[in-house]
Amino acid sequence: MFHKKLKIKLKEKGKEGRILFLKDYLDYLLRNDRPLPPDFPTFAREIMGLDDRRGFIHIRIWHEKSELVEFAREMDYEYRIDHYD
Hints:
Blueprint: E1 4-9, H1 14-31, H2 40-49, E2 56-61, H3 67-74, E3 79-83
Antiparallel strand pairs: 1-2, 1-3
């Protein structure tokens, strides 16, 4: 199985957009009684270190039913899923 690329458009560009993304993700987890992933500190560092390509960040996922896809849909982020070659 090959991983996919989730491309999420940030609501603001740059560092502020990534911080808002992480705040929204934490809010989503708490409001839906989801556990905080054990690797969340690593995830947060990864998000803060990503380049925003024309306002989009690219995150690797394994399937279209990923929690991150559900989060993006529920929190009204513009997104798309691409397959790696």
